[in-house]
Every structure is written in C-alpha cells, then in structure tokens.
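Whiteboard transcription, Tuesday session. T.W. wrote the structure tokens on the left side:
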C-alpha cells in the first residue's frame, strides 16, 4: 500500500486557479508523487507556456516525471504533450518516457459546436521527442499500488456519455453504422463523414491503493464518475474509497442524475471529493451543499494535497 504521509498530489492545470502565479486553463493536469513514482496525469490544453509555467511554479522538475497517463484523447487533456516532451528532450536528449493511454486516444476526435478536439499531435511527432506509447484497454498496473483503469464498465442506469462527441466514420472506436448530418455536428464536416461516439471508450482513470483506502484520479469521467469509482473498487478489490479528485463531467446534467450522483457518493462512503474542470460551477455548488464542507473541496490549479496523521490537507480556493 502507498503510505499516505509520503503521498503528494498537485493539480497543475484546471479551469480556475487556487493560488497566485499559476495560470488557469480550460483542461486538466494532475501530478502525483507516491514516494516511489512521479506520474503526470493529463497535460492540459496546450495554450502557450501554461503547462511548463505551472510545473515550474509548483516546483516540479520535468525530468523527474516517470510516466505520463492520458485519461482520454481530448485536446484539453493532451494539448500540453508536445511542449512538455520537447522541454524534456532539450534537457536530456536521451530521455524516453512512457505514455499510457487507450489506443483510441490518439485517433481524431470531434465535439459538437467545436469541431476537431482530439490530440493535436501525431504519435510519430511525439515519438521524436522521446515518447513511447503503451496502449491499454484492460487495467494496467504501473506498480502493485498504482493502476490505470483500462476501459471503464458502465454499470448504472443514470450515467451516460451524452451526444456531443463524434469520430470519423469507420474509425476503430466510433461504433455507429450510420453517418450523422451536418446539423447534428454543428460544425463544418469538410467533406468527411462522421459517426456519433456514445461510448468514449478511451476514457480512463487512475487508482491509488493507499493505507487510507482507494484514491481515484478522474480525467473527465465521460463514462460516469460513479461507474469509474465502482470499476476501481472491482479492479483493486478495495471497497473503502477515501478520495476522488478531478473532472466528474456533471456540468449541465439533469437534476435526476445529479441527485443520483450525490446519493451514490454518500452510499459508497467517499471521505473526500475534490472536483475540477468539467464538474461545472453549478454542480460544484450542489456537491458542496449536499456533501458538506467536511467532504467537498474545490481542486483548482495550484492545489497541493498532502496527508498528515490520516488527514487530508489542501490549499483550496
């Protein structure tokens, strides 16, 4: 088990900032130091200089990062890859770094009203800077206490991925057999055909097995925050969930789904819930009110989570 008092978690990128000097950016990146491994979970959207600036402000050395995990392929989670890898390569041309993701994460992806919103770089381009990709679909153990979820099982009846995501027709993870109209897309298809992606199979999470219980690091939880927690319990065999942090993708969901999410968090008995990114401000307010300040906190860019005497300490804003 990971010893909690040796564990440190810093949120490098989020839509909002918790402290002066870090820069807010629509996206997510979370650094986890277990004492044995340093993991960068997602890399933000890639706006000029943001990721590298925030890493420096938070006193994180890029050369000390052991592995990168991508929760999924959307640009607000993969956009920082090239500047990060280029910086690593400049500092140490021989450094190679493993990037763990679903095979569909590097495919072109599209979002309604926006258009192209997948990883803005090719695999080959990133490999020139030392990236070494490991594609997974099943749970993958970085070590005995750190697990990448693989594809998350959707087991409840209230969480869905929504209707805003598309892939190019006949790609491996767009499972529709019928192309969608330009009106459905709400962006110019530029002579391509698209299919609805209601699966978002590349959506993954990170699980930490600690002396306080299971800790769940979410990217966007497109396949459902509760589904992702339940999947982690099944994969690790740990029922006690101490912490979840990250994006819960509850922005704009129905009142029924929000109520079911709150009730599930209470039923599971999650001790701490720190939300980021795609949770949404309204949903964050509801979670704060329903879960209470002993459980809920905002997990913004610049937030530093440490543990002292089995208690979570965070400089939330």
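and on the right, the sequence the group agreed on:
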């Amino acid at each position: 088990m990971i010893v909690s008092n040796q564990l440190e978690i810093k949120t490098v990128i989020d839509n909002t900032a918790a402290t002066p000097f870090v820069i807010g950016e629509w996206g997510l990146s979370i650094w986890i130091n277990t004492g044995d491994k340093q993991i960068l979970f997602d890399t933000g959207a890639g706006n000029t200089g943001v990721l590298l600036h925030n890493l420096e402000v938070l006193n994180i050395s890029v050369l000390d990062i052991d592995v990168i995990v991508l929760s999924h392929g959307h640009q607000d989670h993969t956009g920082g890859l090239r500047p990060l890898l280029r910086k690593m390569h400049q500092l140490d041309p021989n450094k190679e770094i493993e990037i763990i993701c679903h095979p569909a994460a590097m495919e072109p992806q599209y979002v309604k009203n926006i258009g192209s919103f997948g990883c803005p770089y090719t695999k080959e381009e990133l490999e020139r800077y030392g990236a070494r990709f490991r594609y997974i679909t099943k749970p993958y153990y970085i070590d005995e206490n750190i697990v990448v979820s693989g594809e998350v099982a959707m087991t409840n009846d209230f969480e869905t991925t929504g209707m805003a995501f598309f892939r190019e027709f006949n790609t491996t993870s767009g499972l529709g057999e019928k192309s969608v109209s330009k009106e459905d897309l709400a962006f110019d298809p530029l002579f391509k055909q698209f299919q609805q992606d209601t699966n978002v199979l590349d959506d993954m999470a990170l699980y930490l097995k600690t002396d306080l219980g299971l800790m769940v690091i979410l990217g966007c939880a497109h396949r459902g925050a509760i589904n992702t927690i339940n999947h982690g319990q099944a994969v690790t065999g740990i029922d006690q969930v101490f912490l979840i942090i990250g994006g819960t993708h509850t922005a704009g969901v129905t009142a029924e789904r929000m109520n079911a999410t709150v009730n599930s968090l209470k039923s599971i008995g999650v001790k701490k819930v720190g939300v980021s990114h795609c949770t949404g401000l309204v949903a964050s307010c509801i979670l704060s009110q329903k879960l209470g300040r002993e459980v809920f906190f905002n997990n913004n860019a610049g937030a530093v989570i440490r543990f002292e005497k089995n208690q979570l300490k965070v400089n939330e804003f």
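Someone added at the bottom: Residues 255-268 form the longest helix (14 residues).
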